[in-house]
Amino acid sequence: MKTILVTGGAGFIGSNFIFYMMKQTPKMRIVCYDKLTYAGNLSTLRPIMDAPDFRFVKGDVCDREAVFRVFEEERPDVVVNFAAESHVDRSIEDPGVFLRTNILGTQTLMDACRAYGGVRYHQVSTDEVYGDLPLDRPDLFFTEETPICTSSPYAASKAAADLLALSYFRTYGLPVTISRCSNNYGPYQFPEKLIPLMIANALADKPLPVYGTGENVRDWLYVEDHCRAIDLIIREGRVGEVYNIGGHNELTNIELVKMICRELGRPESLITHVADRKGHDRRYAIDPKKIHGELGWLPETKLADGLKRTIAWYLENRPWWEEIVSGEYQEYYRKMYGAR
Ligand code: NAD
Ligand code: TDX
């Protein structure tokens, strides 16, 4: 039986990936390694905590000793690294922890892969490494050849990790793959990110804070489509290669927030335009030709359907996110939005 080490598996995409893999590939041991930062939530994994082929280990990806220990104990065949600081706004406030976790954490994991040998390493990256596209050029898309040109400290830290991963492939022959995905949404997303934040605020009849004019465009991908793509890449992708994931679901932020209002039956008058994000990327848009051509992947969930499912999930799982928005998050919200 193969063992897969999923780092950052208590967060949004990592937990969805674990659930996906358990369904798709039942004969696989899954070890989740996560520091449980503010973004990690053990309650998400509660239903599988006692499953026979699952183990949770609390640990920091930058902690060499702890990382090597888990490799010694579990001898993983594959590592999928989701562990990261992932919120752009937080990186603008405090870049340090982003550089530490996102870059040094990647190095530590790849060093362990090298030390134990024969381990396939997958780096979960982002389309933000390409910077942004102009709003008046709908003909332009990010391909794997688009130059890296980052805007935020978050994006810069992710780009650095990607370059490090490619250097480990070239220099040491470590079998790495990288995926660069567009904006994800779906169940278990921390309510600091646009879609769950707007759902939570709308349900509480609180203002819906849209940065600037709201004309910025994002290319939304339902999280399960992302998980399916990663599964394909680790099984059939070529080592040393980058694969873009996303496409065909572009929308301006303001259109998206209005859709959420309509779905929830809340008035658009809740929308409040607040100060823009510093360095705010204008448009992200993925060209998924490579992953489609090589691995047959295309997004399956249309935004309108995925959004309905996501809203239904947040309505049915209020305790999961109400606990988050009632705690420390209040202080974060005051700090980030109080002066906007
Ligand atoms: P998230 O913030 O929801 O989860 C991150 C997880 O990593 C948490 O469980 C957290 O506890 C853990 N973690 C943080 N620092 C750690 C450390 N030092 N050691 C061990 N664990 C640590 O993030 P997400 O949205 O699920 O994103 C997962 C990955 O996907 C990230 O690498 C992110 O850059 C990438 N990504 C995200 C999106 C998106 O739209 N959310 C899109 C493209 C790529
Ligand atoms: O309150 C808000 N108001 C608002 O207008 C928030 C939180 C966001 N926004 C805007 C900023 C962006 O244009 O909405 C858009 C989406 O914002 P986020 O949810 O913060 O996502 P983004 O900055 O696009 O980054 C996301 O996608 C790429 C993830 O957080 C990253 O981890 C991923 O790499």
Class based on secondary structure composition and strand pairing: alpha/beta
Low-pLDDT stretches: none
Write the element-wise H/E pattern from the N-terminal end onward.
EHEHEHEHHEHEEHEEEHEEHEHHHH
Radius of gyration: 19 Å
Strand content of the residues, in percent?
A: 15-25%
What count of helical segments does DSSP give?
13
Query: Which compounds are bound in this model?
Result: nicotinamide-adenine-dinucleotide, thymidine-5'-diphospho-beta-D-xylose
Quaternary assembly: single chain
Helix content: 40-55%
What is the terminal separation in angstroms? 52 Å
The biggest sheet, with number of strands, parallel, antiparallel or mixed sense and barrel status, is: 7 strands, parallel
The neighbouring-strand order within the major sheet is 3-2-1-4-5-6-11
| Molecular shape | globular
Counted beta strands: 13
Mean pLDDT: 97
Structure overview:
The chain has 340 residues and is α/β, with parallel strands linked by helices. It has 13 helices and 13 strands. Strands 3-2-1-4-5-6-11 form a seven-stranded parallel sheet, sandwiched between helices. The protein has a two-stranded parallel sheet with strand order 7-10. α2 links the parallel β2 (28-34) and β3 (54-58). α7 (194-203) runs parallel beside α9 (253-264). The protein is globular. The model has no long low-confidence stretch (mean pLDDT 97). Nicotinamide-adenine-dinucleotide (NAD) is lined by residues 7-8, 10-14, 34-37, 39-40, 60-62, 82-86, 101, 105, 124, 126, 158, 181, 183-184, 190.
Primary descriptors:
seven-stranded parallel beta sheet; alpha/beta; 13 strands; two-stranded parallel sheet; single chain; globular; binds thymidine-5'-diphospho-beta-D-xylose; binds nicotinamide-adenine-dinucleotide; 340 residues
